[in-house]
Design goal:
heterotrimer; A mainly alpha; B mainly alpha; C alpha/beta; A: mainly alpha; globular; B: mainly alpha; MetI-like fold; two-stranded antiparallel sheet; 12 helices; 2 strands; about 75% helix
Chain lengths: ~280, ~290, ~350
């Protein structure tokens, strides 16, 4: 019965909702369409269906004839870049998950001096503008004489990803009942056993969710990575950035669609898992 | 007791190390650098040099320069675009949050999924999509020309409009989710009571719905404002480097004009604005809590 | 027990993967501008010498310098512009590779030894040069002779031209048009140049590097761009053109330099020798469509490139081309002018 009086607004609101979804999806949908357009010069003008742009990613461009194919990067290079991205995301997200979870447990289960300081400190990396963190890390690594490369990117990512994992796991811990943990302790289980057998299984969805979030954010980070990348440590977003700087090419749209597909798959799995849980 | 203490130390050690070494120290160095003289070819000279801030304020650096607060003007532009981004995100997301909250439980999950999904795709690609849409021979202009609504392509790309649109687009989920969380909890009995008491829809909206959803709007606004203020990727691509924001200046100071201290000072300017916004919000929230308690 | 063993192994593997660092033999790490070497040459070099070549790219000299100074070593060869070559040599970032003792050195145009620090070619190998001019779409603007035409068109069609997002290049055009040197250190001259460009700004669509696609598709009519655009102009000469402005223009030259802390010195020198071969220099010039510094390579170029007035300009045109010097501290005169231009 509620909201019966809103009825005249309902149709309008529904229409608006669809417009909103269109606003979100139209640009992405167009990229997908463009990526199959054979017209290499003007992507808005349809001249025929092609899979060439995808082929150039996997096979490299034939240097003959193909307009603008002259400088398409070799497939090895693209795969190297993708490998870098995954290596960074996997390492950074794993470490950040451990650190973020440990911190969340410490802050949720212990009372100690300086707790509020930690709570504020953990929010900061998410609130500092990317560019500030990027240059701060650049100056720091240069000053400390640490060679820029995959390692510095991983470290840089861990600093802000830990905060994200912390927030996700904390949310899970906040809604959790502590009686089981107490019971376990009362029954003589050590803290480690209690953690492994009782706490961890309960917060697992939060930990996995935090890891996935961290993984995706790491995989997509441009700004911070841009400042602290070094030799041979180009990641996929930096690669796309460099490609975009040099011009609009249909190959970028094909690569974009592949990335879209991948992130949609990961995100869908994550969200479906979460929904099944609740 | 000591065992518990040890466990706590063990749990806190990694985050303390990571944030201490790779976050607080670097930020501290940025502060120090902002007071040093730029090295000729990047880096710094270790001499006290407050002129980086003077330069931001428009102070002439050499005797032949004149007072010219151009960097403040650029900062003002950044503020303007960040505010516009917040404003338009709000306008777009607010009704959408109501729309989603009024779906049936089954649809709600699916629609929420749809709205958060683009957030998980590459930021650059979402910007790139608008580049393709807005360019003079892009989809929008081609469509309008096809419909004979225009004869000359509109200059949509490389403008402040494109920058704001791009930022609204990439930050939509940041604004939508907090508002939605708030709207979802909205107490409809208050709305009905207001209507029963004879309030017209406008009164009900401004007196009841708006105040009740304000916390979500404020949270969303802050989360959008912060990354918008320091952004340099969107102005670089959709603004055609003609639209300058402070983020672009910082990038250029480090990677083109070899003036790290000036870039550091600018970064701290952005940082200070962010801290200011957060402090205002904390104080405001604190006062409201006190007011609610009283 | 078995499970914990698996766990230990898994974490060991994870650490091994995360800690994996490049340190192998038979490698060569290049750090070059984007789109600035024929990829076939890299493949050919790798195959001939059994060397694994990696190529990273940068888009400004300063970006490269910042990263090299930031200890981003691991690179062997870099491609600085001549003035950056001077800077890097002064900063001790380079080591002599003695290309002047390599076979084929006699083919290098003596005029290409432009570096003030390295007049005999002890350090770096001159690589390629080219003019910076105007790339245009003939459907929108049938003929462009120089900057006057370029800006006049923009005045009639605001937003339809772009200039490079590079302070020295774009202010350089202002300096040329106001009759000053592109290396001026005179604040008055620089401010006149700033004024000149500022007047054009309302008509300039954007400051960008990615001009090729925009001009080709007709999004914009003409763009301030490097001679490399001739590659595209030759593919569609009906519609696309490139011109070195008659009022004068800037030019660039890059040298291949060996970094002081290069890990693969021998392979780097092999690569220089490889690039000294006239057929390779020609292959590169063919793809980059810019001037080669290898006189023997000019003979090997296809007719249409050899006679192209933009790639191989006449001595009169060459005389009007100016190259950038390092300005040291005075660069800041340009920085503020540039910031003001972009804030209009």
């Amino acid at each position: 019965m509620r909201g019966k009086r809103f009825r005249p607004w309902s149709a309008l609101l529904n229409g608006y909702g669809l417009l909103f979804l269109a606003f979100l999806y139209l640009p992405l949908g167009l990229i997908v369409v463009y990526s199959f357009n054979a017209n290499p010069i003007n992507m808005a003008e349809w001249t025929g269906f092609t899979l060439d742009w995808y082929a150039t990613i996997f096979r490299g461009a034939s240097t003959e004839g193909n307009f603008d194919a002259a400088f398409t990067e070799s497939p090895e290079r693209i795969f190297g870049v993708i490998r870098n991205s995954f290596l960074v995301a996997l390492c950074a997200a794993s470490v950040a998950t451990v650190i973020g979870t440990a911190t969340a447990i410490a802050l949720a289960r212990y009372r100690f001096f300086g707790k509020r300081f930690y709570q504020a400190l953990l929010l900061l990396p998410m609130l500092v503008p990317d560019i500030v963190l990027g240059i701060a890390l650049l100056i720091f690594f240069v000053g400390a004489g640490i060679e820029l490369g995959l390692m510095t990117i991983i470290i840089g990512h861990i600093t802000f990803l830990s905060s994200y994992v912390f927030v996700v796991v904390s949310a899970r811990l906040a809604g959790m009942d502590t009686t089981l943990e107490q019971a376990s302790a009362d029954l003589g289980a050590g803290p480690l056993t209690t953690f492994r057998r009782v706490t961890l299984p309960q917060i697992m969805p939060g930990v996995v969710g935090g890891f996935l979030l961290a993984f995706i954010i790491s995989l997509d980070d441009v700004v911070i990575t841009y400042f602290i990348a070094g030799v041979g440590s180009q990641t996929l977003p930096l690669f796309i950035l460099a490609m975009m700087r040099r011009g609009l090419r249909p190959q970028i749209t094909a690569l974009a669609v592949l990335i879209l597909l991948f992130s949609l798959t990961v995100a869908s799995i994550g969200l479906i898992l979460r929904n099944r849980k609740s | 007791m000591t065992r518990k203490r040890n466990a706590l130390l063990l749990l806190l050690a990694p985050i303390s190390l990571i944030l201490g070494i790779f976050f607080l120290i670097p930020l501290g160095i940025v502060v120090v650098y902002s007071f040093l003289e730029p090295g000729l070819y990047g880096g710094v000279e270790w001499t006290w040099y407050p002129y980086n801030y003077g330069r931001i304020l428009g102070w002439p650096l050499n005797d032949y320069e004149e007072f010219d607060p151009i960097y403040l003007a650029i900062f003002a532009t950044s503020l303007k675009y960040a505010f516009l981004t917040v404003l338009f995100s709000l306008l777009i997301c607010y009704p959408a949050a109501f729309w989603v909250s009024r779906r049936s439980a089954r649809w709600k999950g699916f629609v929420l999924f749809l709205i958060t999904l683009p957030f998980f795709t590459s930021l650059l690609i979402r910007i790139y999509a608008w580049l393709l849409l807005l360019r003079p021979t892009g989809f929008i202009n081609a469509g309008l020309e096809y419909l004979s609504l225009i004869s000359q392509p509109l200059d949509l790309l490389f403008s402040g409009f494109a920058v704001v649109l791009g930022m609204v687009y990439i930050f939509t989920p940041f604004m939508f989710l907090p508002i939605y969380a708030n709207v979802e909890k909205l107490d409809y009995s208050l709305i009905r009571a207001s209507q029963d008491l004879g309030a017209n829809p406008a009164q009900t909206f401004f007196r009841i719905i708006l105040p009740l959803t304000a916390p979500g709007m404020i949270a969303g606004s802050i989360i959008v404002f912060i990354p918008a203020l320091g952004n340099f990727i969107v102005p670089a691509f959709l603004g055609g480097a003609k639209v300058q924001m402070t983020g672009n200046l910082i990038e250029r100071s480090f990677l083109q004009s070899r003036d790290w201290p000036f870039g550091s000072a600018l970064a701290l300017l952005i940082m200070a604005s962010v801290v200011l916004v957060l402090m205002v919000q904390t104080i405001r929230a604190g006062r409201k809590q006190a007011g609610d308690a009283a | 027990m078995k499970r914990s063993l698996v766990r230990v192994l898994a974490s060991a593997a994870a650490i091994a993967v995360c800690g994996q660092m490049a340190a192998a033999e038979g490698k060569l790490n290049l750090y070059n501008w984007g789109d600035y070497i024929n990829p076939e040459l890299i493949d050919a070099f790798g195959k001939e010498f059994g060397v694994e070549v990696t190529l990273d790219t940068y888009s400004t000299n300063e970006e490269m310098l910042a990263r090299i100074q930031a200890g981003a070593s691991g690179y062997d060869l870099v491609w600085p512009s001549v003035h950056m070559h001077d800077i890097m040599q002064q900063l001790g970032l380079l080591q002599p590779a003695h290309p002047n003792q390599m076979p084929g050195w006699e083919n290098i145009d003596p005029a290409a030894l432009r570096s003030k620090e390295d007049p005999n070619g002890d350090y770096c190998l001159p690589y390629a040069w080219g003019a910076v001019g105007i790339f245009y779409n003939k459907k929108l603007i049938p003929e462009v002779k120089g900057w006057t035409d370029f800006f006049a068109y923009a005045k009639a069609n605001p937003g339809k031209i772009t200039m490079l997002d590079d302070l020295r290049e774009t202010l350089g055009v202002g300096l040329i048009m106001t009759g000053a040197s592109v290396n001026s250190r005179d604040p008055d001259e620089i401010s006149r140049a700033e004024e000149y460009i500022s007047e054009q700004v309302p008509n300039i669509g954007a400051f960008r590097y990615d001009v090729i696609a925009l001009v080709t598709a007709g999004d914009i009519a003409a763009g301030h761009y490097y001679v490399g655009a001739v590659l595209n102009a030759l593919q569609d000469p009906e519609n696309l053109g490139f011109v070195i402005p008659e009022e004068g223009a800037t030019m660039y030259q890059e040298d291949i330099c060996l970094l002081a802390n290069a890990p693969n010195v021998d392979n780097a020198k092999l690569f220089m020798q490889f690039m000294l071969r006239p057929e390779n220099a020609a292959k590169n010039a063919e793809r980059l469509t810019n001037g080669t510094v290898n006189l023997a390579a000019i003979e090997l170029l296809p007719e249409n490139l050899r006679t192209n007035p933009s790639i191989n300009p006449t001595p009169e045109v060459r005389a009007k081309l100016q190259i950038f010097d390092d300005l040291g501290k005075d660069l800041r005169l340009y920085t503020k002018a540039w910031d003001r231009i972009k804030t209009n």
